[in-house]
Design a protein that fits this description.
The protein has 16 helices and 7 strands. The chain is α/β, with parallel strands linked by helices.
């Protein structure tokens, strides 16, 4: 039994998902409030992945409440969003040891907890892993459920689509939850992200429908019926469900990922279905902490900071010489090389800030390529440039 925390009285009673499932559904909103506050206070003292976890609080609570983990398998894609999962699975009092010697791993790790069903640290692997687990359950005749949680940034990688393409063929009972927060680490890029963004905004569809309704007010009822049937077919052609259903998934969503009641009801319904299921939820990175909501990139993986103040850049002493970071040195060097050699090209897999390419992207936009979280493509794309004499 862990120590009780007066600041988080309900959360401190949860030492495993089994404890969470003993609570009434009406208490889960308070669990989310306490969990979010606990994350803010804990990560601020040590640093670590921050904004992504705040965005998955309600989803994590709902998943562990509806599914019988660890018997039901929960596979997280990367670990940025898995801090709430660690808190609810018996590691609450050790969360502050993340990234410390002998501390918790910053990602799900199989040797750390039976609730960490798959070791990650690289993105876009969750659907493949979950599909393998679901097929294993199928072969064993086991009734356990398998859920993969993947972000929209990780969905830009080819591996995710290779797994989606294979799911229908297996016929396995796998559930894919797309956590759509319109962010990877840098801003999302690419045609797929643009397509999903247009679908999610719905402005074109809404505006067209409103105009059509005005016109139809003056026509006969049979024409209205014809228009209604056309609308139903047209809507099916321009919603996200079309793409994922072509892969053989039963699509549900989009659902507000911060509406706990809607999440609980939807997950309970999806759990009863068989075959490949796809649940699309929409969340906000940094949810509940305004500074992180406004700057999700800056608060992706901050160092220590005061939660009441936020990240404050240290002011050097008046007589101190600034010490550049390795990333800054690399960024400056790359720009120097690019000025003298037009063949130098910069490529990043959604890591412009972390890899020191901000200045390069601004000074040489025609030689800068953010390929999204798609490392396999990034390396092979670079190889193609290199064999033609470029210097990626």
């Amino acid at each position: 039994m862990k120590g009780r925390d007066p600041l988080h009285p309900l959360l401190s009673r949860i030492d495993s998902p089994a404890d969470l499932r003993k609570l009434e559904a009406s208490q889960l909103g308070e669990v989310c409030t306490e969990l979010r506050d606990y994350l803010i206070r804990s990560v601020a003292t040590r640093g670590g992945h921050f904004a992504a976890g705040l965005g998955t609080v309600e989803l994590t609570v709902a998943l562990h409440y509806i599914y019988a983990t660890p018997d039901d398998r929960l596979v997280w894609d990367v670990g940025h969003q898995a801090y709430p999962h660690k808190v609810l699975t018996g590691r609450r009092d050790r969360l502050q040891t993340i990234k410390q010697k002998d501390g918790l791993a910053p990602f799900p790790a199989r040797n750390e907890s039976e609730y960490d069903t798959f070791g990650v640290g690289h993105s876009s692997t969750s659907i493949s892993a979950a599909l393998g687990m679901a097929v294993a359950a199928q072969r064993e005749g086991a009734d356990r459920k398998v859920v993969a949680v993947i972000g929209d940034g990780a969905m830009t990688a080819g591996m995710a689509f290779e797994a989606l393409n294979n799911a229908e063929q297996t016929g396995a009972n796998v559930i894919v939850v797309l956590n759509d927060n319109d962010m990877s680490i840098s801003e999302n890029v690419g045609a797929l992200n643009n397509y999903l963004a247009k679908l999610m905004s719905g402005r074109f569809y809404a505006a067209t429908k409103k105009t059509a309704e005005k016109v139809l007010d003056s026509v006969s009822p049979p024409m209205k019926q014809l228009a209604k049937r056309f609308e139903e077919h047209a809507k099916g052609m321009i919603t996200p469900s079309t793409m994922f259903e072509e892969f053989g998934f039963n699509y549900t969503g989009p659902v507000d990922g911060h509406n706990l009641e809607a999440l609980l009801d939807t997950l309970a319904n999806v759990k009863r279905l068989t075959g490949p299921q796809f649940l699309h939820i929409v969340t906000r990175k940094g949810q509940g902490y305004k500074l992180a909501e406004d700057d999700p990139i800056g608060y992706h993986g901050p160092g220590k900071f005061d939660p009441g103040v936020g990240i404050v850049k240290a002011k050097p002493a008046p007589d101190a010489r600034p010490r550049p970071t390795y990333t800054q040195v690399f960024g400056e060097w790359l720009c120097d090389m690019a000025r003298t050699d037009k063949r130098v090209v910069g490529i990043t897999p959604a890591m412009r800030e972390g890899s020191g390419l901000v200045k390069f992207s601004q000074e040489f936009p025609d030689r800068y390529f953010d390929v999204g979280i798609a490392e396999q493509h990034a390396v092979t794309f670079a190889a193609g440039l290199a064999v033609e004499g470029q210097k990626p």
